[in-house]
Design brief:
The structure holds 2 protein chains of 2 kinds.
Chain A: H1 2-24, H2 32-38, H3 44-50, H4 83-123, H5 129-156, E1 174-179, E2 182-188, H6 202-226, H7 232-255, H8 263-267, H9 279-297, H10 318-335, H11 351-377, H12 382-397, H13 405-429, H14 438-456, E3 466-467, E4 470-471, H15 482-513, H16 520-525, H17 528-532
Antiparallel strand pairs in A: 1-2, 3-4
Chain B: H1 2-22, H2 26-53
Helix pairs in contact in B: 1-2
The chains are: A mainly alpha, B mainly alpha.
């Protein structure tokens, strides 16, 4: 019996060994030389033979006859299908795939406007719902008009050719000045009305659409912070400034070939300021502008007692708030993965990694926020859970293309806690009233995302071999490149020290010429009737203001 | 005070930017940029915010 067991065990071990050896045997693949000798060049004659007419009189129910050599576009019908035609079709397909991907992602991002609208409207009181929705509705048009007229040329006029979108070279005019022995790019100067200097171009149109929806995301962040007390006319003028100047200038510096992007090539700081999808460019610019506007506007009546103690002012519809968070998270799959601007070539397939990083950070962000609130206050606060979810998504936006999934989860978790701490600090220490928490969600966590690139980037990304003109993948401090962190911190310093000042001065001018804040009477009545002329909920009986601090 | 705060905030950016020209050491640049960030934060939180708080509606009356 013992012998039998030993024999069986020996046989199993032998089989296992053989299996292991087989598993470890390398798969035999033809060497490049073998492959080259095996594959003869395709001739035009062979292509003509491949493109045979097919009988489609009975349709093509199984799809076997559709999408064949017959569908390749032929330049010269007399010559028939040639190798040149096939190569042109391959190039057109690659750019077509990238156009499709980028445009569809742009459409997803556009839908985020709906998410922002319902989150912000849900977090305000019912008496201001129409006003808040109308700000979110018109921010799309006002921002787009400003960007079409002025913003896009300033941002992308000197961006150069985007290889993934066909390499159109017409965006080639960057205004620079010489300092520290280098050219410092300040703003672009071509592409006005999408007609100037050959910019009536299919690739430029894709870039415009994709960049426009990014810009509009920035403008809609501010409406949340300023809701319930912002004069509608002031909102429109302020949004024009943001879409025409503030956003495009910083976006040029980061994405349009400006001086921040060139920190690596010019000053040896990593790969220059790296912001894959806009934690800094989109979210911090929006959050910091919101901070500037909130300071000028001041808090809502009743938000603080005379001794500065904050009063909670709950929103009127938490279901819309959380539903809006999901709409935003859905749109984020356009925001971050779409920023590859490609699915074919130059690292476009890494969009899958970007998408996973995005969803992981959102998940850990919501966990961080829920756990923080649960431990600190005994309940998992719904609005803060939503904000923590968004904070995770904001924070991963810049690093999503450069980090691995574990780092993405850590970045999101930190963001989820950070947004709660930041909201408390802004409300209780700075006494700034931010009804939706946008300064913390987008401003604070946008900055965290920018810094996270400088810490967690693992150097594995490869978008065509280089980033911002520096060879290799973006590598952060934890993977050996301290210079990248310095480049990111310079971006943070620019956002806090330059973008804030620019936004503040613009909005101070708006305050002087238009007036930013509605009258106390209008604010107490709710802005729907005084500003918009109609209630959001005409059939509802609204609660009267319980207590007034003036 | 608001204008002083704006000037200090912008000064922080200038300090960070100048780090590019005054040294090639990564460590020194990082230190200078961090100083710039702190100066800007002082401008916003230490000067502009208190200046505006005085005029805010809950402080009136």
């Amino acid at each position: 019996m013992t012998k039998k067991i030993v024999l069986v065990l020996a046989a199993v071990v032998c089989l296992a060994r053989v299996g292991t050896v087989r598993a470890q045997e390398p798969v035999t693949t033809p060497t490049p030389a073998t492959a080259a000798t095996a594959a003869a060049p395709i001739t035009d004659a062979e292509l003509k033979a491949a493109a045979k007419p097919t009988d489609r009189t009975n349709g093509d129910p199984d799809g076997a006859l559709t999408g064949t050599a017959n569908d390749i576009a032929i330049a010269d019908p007399k010559a028939g299908l040639t190798v040149t035609d096939v190569l042109n079709q391959i190039g057109a397909n690659r750019i077509g795939v990238n156009f499709t991907w980028t445009l569809l992602c742009g459409f997803l991002i556009m839908f985020m406007q709906a998410g922002f609208a319902v989150v912000e409207a849900g977090l305000c009181r019912a008496k201001n719902a129409n006003h808040t929705m109308m700000m979110n509705f018109m921010v799309y048009g006002v921002g787009m008009l400003a960007y079409f007229l002025i913003g896009f040329p300033l941002q992308m006029g000197g961006a150069g050719a985007v290889a993934n979108l066909g390499g159109s070279p017409v965006l080639n005019a960057e205004f620079t000045f010489h300092l520290f022995g280098k050219d410092i790019g300040l703003f672009g100067n071509t592409g006005y009305l999408l007609m100037h200097h050959g910019t009536y171009d299919v690739a430029v149109m894709v870039i415009f659409l994709f960049q426009m929806v990014f810009m509009d995301t920035t403008t809609t962040i501010v409406t949340g912070t300023c809701c319930e007390r912002w004069k509608y006319a002031a909102f429109m003028v302020s949004t024009m400034f943001l879409g025409a100047f503030t956003y495009p200038i910083f976006a040029n510096w980061a994405w349009g070939g400006g001086w921040l992007a060139m920190l690596g090539a010019n000053f040896g700081l990593g790969h220059g300021y790296a912001d894959f999808a806009g934690s800094g460019v989109v979210h911090s610019v929006g959050g910091i502008t919101a901070l500037a506007c909130a300071l000028i506007l001041g808090p809502r009546i009743g938000k603080f007692t005379r001794d500065g103690k904050p009063n909670p002012i709950p929103g009127h519809d938490i279901m819309w708030v959380l539903c809006g968070c999901f709409i935003l998270a859905f749109g984020w799959f356009g925001f971050n993965p779409g920023s590859t601007l490609a699915m074919s070539g130059n690292g476009g397939l890494r969009a899958s990694s970007v998408a996973v990083n995005t969803m992981l950070a959102g998940m850990t962000g919501s966990f961080g926020g829920i756990l923080y609130m649960w431990i600190r206050y005994g309940k998992p606060d719904a609005s803060m859970s939503g904000n923590a979810f968004l904070a995770g998504l904001v924070a991963i936006t810049a690093p999503s293309g450069f980090v691995n999934p574990v780092a993405a989860a850590i970045i999101g978790l930190v963001a989820g806690v950070l947004v709660c701490v930041s909201c408390e600090f802004i409300e209780r220490v700075l006494k700034i009233d931010d009804p939706v928490g946008a300064i913390s969600v987008h401003g604070t966590n946008g900055l965290w995302g920018v810094i996270a690139v400088g810490l967690f980037s693992d150097g594995k990304s490869n978008y065509g071999g280089s980033w911002n003109g520096v060879n290799g993948g973006v590598t952060g401090l934890f993977y050996g490149d301290a210079g990248q962190l310095v480049a990111q911190l310079l971006g943070v310093a620019t956002l806090i020290g330059f973008v804030f000042v620019l936004s503040f001065v613009f909005n101070l001018l708006v305050d002087w010429f238009v007036g930013q804040r509605v009258s106390a009477k209008s604010e107490l009545a709710g802005l729907d009737i005084p500003e918009m002329g109609a209630l959001a909920y005409p059939d509802f009986v609204l609660k009267p203001e319980a207590e007034v601090a003036v | 005070m608001t204008l002083v705060g704006l000037a200090v905030t912008f000064l922080g950016f200038v300090i960070a930017f100048v780090s590019l020209g005054v040294t090639e050491s990564t460590g020194m640049r990082m230190a200078i940029v961090l100083v710039g960030i702190v100066v800007s934060l002082i401008g916003i939180m230490g000067l502009i915010t208190p200046a505006y708080q005085k005029s805010w509606i809950y402080k009136k009356g």
